[in-house]
Structure formats: structure tokens, C-alpha cells
Amino acid sequence: MPKPVLVFGYGNLSRGDDALGPLLIDYVQERCDTEAIDILTDFQLQIEHALDLEHRELVLFADASVACEAPFELNELEPALEIAYTTHALHPASVMAVFQSIGKGPPPPCFLLAIKGETFELGENLSPNAERHLRHAESFIEELLQNPHPAVWRSKKFKESTVI
Amino acid sequence: MYEHLETADNPENLRRIAIDPVSRVEGHGKVTLLLDEHNQVKQARLHIVEFRGFERFMQGRPYWELPVIVQRLCGICPVSHQLAAGKAIDQLVGIDPDKLPPTADKLRRLLHFGQVLQSHALHFFHLASPDLLFGFESEIGKRNVIGVLSDYPDIGLKGVKLRKYGQEVIRVICGKRIHGTGAIAGGMNKALTLEERDYLLKDVDQIIAWSEEAVDVIKKVHCSHLPYYDEFATIRSNYLGLTRPDGALELYHGGIRVKNDRGETVIDHIDYCGYSDIIHEEVRSWSYMKFPYLLALGKEDGWYRVGPLARVNNCDYIDTPLAEAARFEFKAHGGGQVMVHSTLAFHWARMIEVLHCAESIKNLLLDPEILGRDLVARGEKRYEGIGVIEAPRGTLFHHYRVDENDILTKVNLIVSTTSNNTAMNESVRQVAATYLSGRELTEPLLNNLEVAIRAYDPCLSCATHAVGKMPLQVELVDAEGRIADRIVKYGDGTIERLADA
């Protein structure tokens, strides 16, 4: 039986700031209490990841983003039939929609922790700004995972966006 | 053939249409068309607009990093790169393929079957099936995986679960779904436990049954639209791939076989370590992707296709009974032609391979040697290693040289999509000339070009997916370079014609 909370960081470690999601997962694995938390990482989200939402009470996706405010944003997601130009990679809201479409019922509460990235070139390390954003995100996720409840995270969302 | 449409005589006088990026493929490519005043297509090209530089990126690193680091080439088929690199570095520690411990060889094959199964399932059910089930020119808002899940939930769900099963095979063998560490120089780093074997075995009959159904789905779609499916984007070509010494379909290790468009064997059972004597690559100024060709046949006639269609065309038989029966029907559908040239038949061949993978996974899981503990062999150090496998999209070449400190000094990769470069361009030109020329272009009509490209399942880039970087725009530019028309397709599939054009 899967654990009630899933933290899923995705991205390519060899593409500069695209590594932010997996690096955050490394931090969670090393520093957080994962007794009730499953950790997953992958290059990108895909349709079969919908099955990873099954039997969860709470899900946190973590990804690099060029669009979010620095250093990071936490937002709750709703299922959305968003089709990007390639379905070789899905947005987490689409993974939730796939979960519904395959008859699994309403998905669990899902949040996206988007960490601000800038450069995504092959073979690059994290940019200095992304390093800084990651440090912020690490402290934040540690705090989040101490209270893995949707209501708490919803309030966090507003608190952090005003603080940062 | 349609090579006369590769370069127009007077491009400055022609209108330009761009599909940028091509959708539902891996990575970033674009198609450009040049049209005269009567909308006749005078030039059609598929461009690869990313320059990856992965080969240079790997130079200077120690060879033992390769099986892990090359997986970052691609988020869809990382295991193919892991195994091709694994085969190459076997040679660096003095181990030829026939000297690998039998358990290690079987574990690698099991891993590879899982990889091909999940990659093919993803492509067929989630990239190609929207076109095949709804129609090439159907409403764009529907033509996607969510539309399939909504209207064909049974087919969609089986696609999800087939993909998941393949990923589970990978996870069990490599420890993770991605970035796992299965192949190492001279073997594998982890044995399969009895519990893991039984875990995979319990679902495999269901996977075989669903794979059979998948073959039926594509067979029905294809045959209910004959002769359209047999003609759409179809080109006559040579076919290249690995086969077993006895001519059987082979995905992991074999000799190179090439057949021409008439089904005559051009070369057979050639050791792939001599690939550079067989294949050369031509550079053309308008594309980052090279154009490989067979030296023996020359630049003009030596281009070839790889991948499921090539493999099923080239082999003499398949060694699993259900897939072999499916191959027999496949070859017979065209009235007994020796070679199936239909580009859309890639999908059918792909599902035959899914069935073969499912059957082979079961066979391997039931083989007592799969649970063995002898996993690594070592020999005399060498300075050059070449690994070739049949990746989901076709023959994949990895070639490395190291110095005395085991540092990589030369890296050469020929990925399958590169081998299909000329063929994809030919198919684009065929569709442009046959279905688009002389007509007013619309999004549904342009999708025909993408359908032709998608049949090859091209993998155009690595897996960067930064949120908010996925535009799609079609521009019509007049002879003076002014944008005459511009259509934007948004993430939800809606289309807007921009007023500023």
C-alpha cells in the first residue's frame, strides 16, 4: 500500500536548472522524516504517473519553472485537460485529469512547488540564482512536510507568497 | 520519389508556411513549406532546430559513468542508451557480447523488452492514437490523449497500464524508473530476486492479452482504411536493422542486415563494430540533424529506414508465436508484397513488437537462469568500444574511445531518428505534394504532415520540460518576408488567428 503523502520531483539533472525538482527530492530523502511519505523522481511527468496518485491523501509536485516568481511558488492544482505541444511530457494538472479520466474518481489534493529556474542548457550546473532558490525551497518543504495536511498547505501558500 | 521538393529553384519568390514546433513528438522540430502563387508546394522540409552537443559533453568523463549519464539524453528511452553504452563499455573491459555471463545477458534483454514495451505503448496510445481513432483532420480539441481517454476509456486505460508495466520491469531491474544503474562494464550490478520475478510474472499474461488487443486495434484501423493507409506518406526505401544469425527479429544483439525496396538482401550478418565502413553521414546546411546513407549504395540511393517497420520487414521470423502470427498477417495484408512500405504501417509493426516484448518478458521470467548470481565478467582492457542495439525507434549506435586513464576521448552516437531523417523528409514531401499542394492550408490539413512524421515516432531532444515554454505557432510569410497570417495553438488545444498579422 502506498504511503499517504507523495512528493514527486521531476526534471533532468543534466540540463542546468531543470535539475531543481530532483535536487529537492534528494534533500527530502536526506533531511526529512519519510516514514509516511513516498518519494518519486522522473525526467518528466507521463500518463502512467496518474496511477501513482492512487490511494494518496496529499501530493506535492516539485519542478523548475521559468514563469513563477522567485524563489518559488506553491499553488494548489485542479485537474485540467491541458495538452501541451508534446504529450511526451504532461503538466501535473493533466496527470490529475488523466487520473479522473481512467475512472479513479477525484484525485487527491495536489500542490505544485514551482522553483524559479533560468538556464536549461545541456551539461550546465545550477545557475547561482537557482542555487539560492533551491536553498529557500529546501527550508520551505521541510516545514511543509512537518504538517502534511491540505488545509495547512493552503494557508502556507498565501503566507509564503507574501513573505517572499 | 519527392527529392525534387527538397530545395526550390527560386525560394525568394515563394510563400513560406512553418509548423513550429511539430506537436506530439519528443523534442523540437519544425516543418517549412514554400508555396507558389497557386498554392503548389515547391519545397518541404523537416528541420531539427535543437543542437544538443551531447557527444562533446561526455568527452573528458570516465567511461564507467556512461550507463548512467547517457540516460539523460532522453526521458523516453533512457534504457536504450544505457544498454547501448553498456555494450560498448563491455568491450572496454575486454568482454564481447558472447562472453557476457548468461544471467547478465538475460537481465539486459529483460530490461530492454520492458523499455521497448513502455516506449511503444506511450507512442501508440498517447501520441498516435488520437489521429488514428479520431481522424487526421478531426477537431483539434479532441485530437489528444485526453480525448482518447474520454471517448475510448478502455483503450486509453490499457495504454496507461501497458506503459506502467514496462516501467515496472525497468524499476525492478534498475532500482529506479529512471537513472537506474543496471548495466555496468562486463555485466549487471544487481540480481533479480525470486520475489521480484514473481511480482512481474503475476501480471504478464494480462499484458500479453492487452498487447494482442493492441495489434487488433491497429490492424482494424489500418485495414478499414485501405488503400489510404497503404498510400499515405508512403515511400519505397531500404531498411536497416539487426537480426539474429538465423534471421529472427532481434532487439538486443545481432548482425546488421539491409534489404532494399524489393526485399533483396543488400548486406547481412555484418558485425556492427564495422558500422563506419557501411554508413556515412551527410551534412546539409539547412538542418542540425545529419543524413546517414549506406556507402555501398551512395548518397542518392543509400538512405534507409530503421525502427519497427524496418525490423518486421527485415526479419525472416519472430521467435514468439503470437507475434509471429501477427507478423504473418501483417506481411499478407498488402496482397503478398515482399516488403511493406506504408509509413502508417509503422504503427502496426510497433504493436507487433509490443506483443513480442510481452511474450519475451514472460519467457525470460520463466527461465531459471534469470535468477542467477553470476553477473559480471572481466577481460583485457581495450581502448575502443562500440555498442549497438535496436532501440524502440530503430538502430542505435554508441561508439567510444578512452585513453590510458579510462577517460573518454571520442564519442560518436547515431540515434535512430537520425537514420530516419531522409525518410521523414521524403514522407513530408509526399504528403505535401499529394494532399496539400494547390489547397488552402488549414490546421487540420497541416496535421497530415505531423501524422506522417509521428509515424516514425521521432525523438528530437532530451527531456527539458520547463513549465511555460511550449508554444505552437503557424506563420504564413509572403515573398517579402512579411507575416501574412499567424495562427497560435494554445495548451488547451484552442486556436486563435492573431489580428496583428
Describe the structure.
- The complex is a heterodimer of chains A (164) and B (501).
- Chain A has helices spanning 20-31, 92-101, 128-146, 150-163; strands at residues 5-10, 37-42, 58-65, 72-77, 110-116.
- Chain A is of the alpha/beta class and 164 residues long.
- A 5-stranded mixed sheet of chain A has the order 2-1-3-5-4.
- Chain B has 2 domains: 3-49 and 429-497, no CATH class; 54-419, Cytochrome-c3 Hydrogenase, chain B, CATH 1.10.645.10.
- In chain B, strands 3-2-1-15-16-17 form a 6-stranded antiparallel sheet, with helices on one face.
- The chains are: A alpha/beta (164), B alpha+beta (501).
Number of strands of chain B: 17
Q: What is the count of structural domains of chain B?
A: 2
The CATH H-level homologous superfamily of the largest domain in chain B: Cytochrome-c3 Hydrogenase, chain B
The number of helical segments of chain B is: 16
Strand order of the largest sheet of chain A: 2-1-3-5-4
pLDDT averaged residue by residue of chain B: 86
Please report which band the strand proportion of chain B falls in: under 5%, 5-15%, 15-25%, 25-35%, 35-45% or over 45%: 15-25%
The CATH topology of chain A, please? Rossmann fold
- What integer is the average pLDDT of chain A? 87
Beta content of chain A comes to 15-25%
Order of helices and strands of chain A: EHEEEHEHH
Low-confidence runs of at least 5 consecutive residues of chain A:
158-164
Shape of chain A: globular
Find the structural class of chain B using helix and strand composition. Answer: alpha+beta
The helix/strand class of chain A is alpha/beta
Q: What strand line-up does the widest sheet of chain B have?
A: 3-2-1-15-16-17
Shape of chain B: globular
Give the helix proportion of chain B (percent range). 40-55%
- Assigned CATH class of chain A: Alpha Beta
Oligomeric state as shown: heterodimer
